Amino acid sequence: MAEHITVGEAPSGIRVVTERMPEVRSVTLGCYVAVGGRDEPGELAGASHFLEHLLFKGTAARSAREIAEAVDARGGEMNAFTAREHTAFYTRLPASHLRFAVELLADVVTEPAFRPSEIDSERHVILEELLLSEDEPDERAHELCMEALFPDHPLGREVLGTEDTVEAMTREQIAGFHRGHYGPANLVVAAAGDVHHDAVVDAVVDHFSSVEATADRPPRTMPTAPAALLAVLRRGTEQAHLAMGWRAFDHHDPDRYALAVINQVLGAGMSSRLFQEIRERRGLAYCVYSYTALYSDAGALLVYAGTAPTRLDEVRTLIAAEVERLVGDGVTDHELAVAKGYLQGSTILGLEDSGSRMARLGSNLMARGEVTPVDEHLLRIEAVTAADVARVVRRVLAGPATTAAVGPVDERDLA
User: Fold this and answer.
1) Known catalytic residue: 122?
2) CA-to-CA distance for 58 and 66, rounded, in angstroms?
3) How far apart are the C-alpha atoms of 265 and 330, rounded to whole Å?
4) Each residue's pLDDT tens digit, 47-103
5) Which residue out of 52, 118, 122, 147 is catalytically annotated?
6) What pTM was computed for the model?
């Protein structure tokens, strides 16, 4: 698969990665910051997410409305997200507006105004977002499971923060967090579309020149406390929401390809064991699936199912039985072929627009310091054997699961 990827560095130290797609007429430009929810001290939990909101509220040169109008006037879009290990800001515009895109993104990321009135108004927006998350019991089950998997560790903490920390955060604390971490060593600028690498670097040199070189990345500590086995949050919901998790390994580990195959066989697709057994064969759940979450020094494999409270124990037993069968018997040759075919095909289909390609560039370079070529990625998936799967299954799933539930249930229902 032909790729036109170039990785380099601007004189300031900002890493720049681009992929030329001459067949498209757009460019998606992203700025990744190597600081996320796990990198905040406890009293500033939610600071990265707060910044994600505030950086769109205005800069020294532009108001929030002017930022929005500048993007709209060019037919583009602009957004951001916060993860546990990074924060990203991105915009998609016609390729003819590349320099403007770099200039706008640099202004937003490096020159926020932090006007007190805008901080207070956005504080209320985030508090409403926290209330909304509490009203989504399925999401709460995932969060509860992560909290139990990584107790008393920032990886187990929700990136939104808490009502207490968001309420208490001052302008000086937020601005200090930005000043301390949003510097060249922590920035990756990624672009995909009808672009030339040198043009992107030139624009980065021109418009990111004001970034101070003093920022650092907070030291990260690996989670060492043992996972809790059970966490239950009683809620008056119609369904019981179940999440089961196992600790895995970090995103550098070469076994991540075998883990992706395991996840696909277990619950990530419509042909997966959990979907076929729990939904299709028994009709016990509308929603059942598995997924992985890999970080710089830890990881997890999680399963979710929403079901009637009276069927919760049956669903949990079925999940445990499928995991036990994986540990004991591994996967069939047919399951292995289907899983690898899906992972390879979905990789290719996910590269059909400049946005998905930019996200692959930025996240790869941010996480592992390199961009794995697509052909190499596909070959690594193809190279996974049944023996690899059996070995990694024993490595991840042989131990007891962490079980979390939200709904009209008690701990004794799951003990």
Assistant:
1) no
2) 8
3) 10
4) 999 999 999 999 989 999 999 999 999 999 999 999 999 999 999 999 999 999 999
5) 52
6) 0.95
